[in-house]
Amino acid sequence: MRNIDDNPSRSNVRKSKKRHKVLRNVLLVLVLLVAIAAGFTAYEIHRLSPDNRFSNLKVIGGDGNVKQAPGAFNLLLIGSDARKGESIGHTDSMVLIHANLKNHTYDMLSIPRDTRVYMDGYGYTKLTSVQYVSQSKNGTQQGILDAVKAVSKLTGVPINFYAETNYWGLQDMVNSIGGIEMNLPFKVTLTHPWNGAFAGRTYQPGLQSFDGQTVTELVHERYSLPGTDYGRQQLQEAALIGIAKKVMQPANVTKLPALSNSLPKFLIATNMSSEDMLSVGLSAKSSFHPEQQIHYRQVKGTNAVMYDDVLKANNDEIILDSSQLQSVIKKYFQN
Fold first, then answer.
1. I want to staple 115 with a disulfide (CB 3.0 to 4.6 A). Which of 24, 127, 272, 313 is the partner?
2. Is 290:181 a contact under the CB 8 Å cutoff?
């Protein structure tokens, strides 16, 4: 008599059940792993969303009691003239940025380097001197913070973040994304380039492609420009828009995490974390149109010879139009 287990059909049924059980267990494990991964991704997305990342922010300059909308922050972008190997430098350019990541608007106000500002503990002096004087007395970090405080005091805007770069940092950043296009608003002749080989070079108005070194020379120029510092501000705007457009190209969006992690090597100093930068990039990637969303604001000023409390002598300074400054701040930097 044949054992029941020797029945081929019954044996196949048992094997089939065993295979189904193994397959079911494998599928359960896969489902569990997918669920964990999805949960992790959802957590990361939730954590990096602008409303969560940029709410209840600390203020390093200005009134911390001023209410700021979730997803919005103020950043001071600083361009330093410090040379390689130097730990201190003058402020060569200042751009105050109000970013509203919910509305996808980025309002920027360039402040001339010779603007008359109040420096705590010293009195009135040029903005370009604040960082240098403080760094020489109190160290690199405190110099940056004092520059932030001077701009906040001048504008009345609470500042959450700062990011400082220099000639080589900007050059490396532009080169790392393969160069950029800049739409030059007017003819530019380089009169005082950092690299002597660029002396006398002239660039005509219009859209052109530039590498990192050319970009840094262009945004450094001011003497040949209409309005000097105000002309330089227009070149800074063109460069920032060019960088933003290149970074947010579809081919580069997937590189945002790597780029955010490498940004510290392009920056002398910043209090923004890589996750802060990644949050900004991810929030903008799907609907970023730099020409429509980046708005450059200018406040006119008058040249005057004023007593400089740091120099203990008269000095050429720019006095910004206070009523125009207040109007611009109220309209574009308080939402």
1. 127
2. no
Give the chain's largest Cα–Cα span: 119
CA distances from 46 to 38, 42, 254 (A): 12, 6, 19
Distance CA 18, CA 3 (A): 20
Could you report the per-residue pLDDT of 83-124, keeping only the tens digit for each? 777 777 788 889 999 999 888 889 999 999 999 999 999 999
102 φ/ψ angles, rounded to the nearest 5 degrees: -80, -40
Helix, strand, coil content of the chain in percent (nearest 5): 45, 25, 30
Nearest to 201 by CA among 218, 185, 184: 218
Contacts of 3 (CB under 8 A, 6+ apart): none
For 129, how many CA atoms within 13 A lie in the half-sphere containing its CB?
Answer: 19
Helix (H, G, I), strand (E, B) or coil at 102: coil
What is the rounded distance in angstroms from the CA atom of residue 274 to the CA atom of residue 242?
22
Q: Environment class of residue 17 by beta-carbon count within 10 Å: exposed (0-12), middle (13-18) or buried (19+)?
A: exposed
Residue 222: both structure tokens together: 């001011």
**The one-letter amino acid at 62:** G
* pLDDT at 4 (0 to 100): 45
Residue 265 is predicted with a pLDDT of 72
Phi, psi of 84 (to 5 degrees): -60, 135
pTM of the predicted model, to two decimals? 0.77
Q: How far apart are CA 179 and CA 156, in angstroms?
A: 36
| Cα end-to-end span (Å), the chain | 90
pLDDT band at 292 (very low <50, low <70, confident <90, very high): confident
In this structure, the number of other CB atoms found within 10 A of the CB of residue 73 comes to 24
Scanning the structure block, which residue is given the tokens 């890589």? 274
Sole residue written with tokens 């160069």: 179
For residues 154 and 123, the answer to whether their CB atoms sit within 8 Å is no
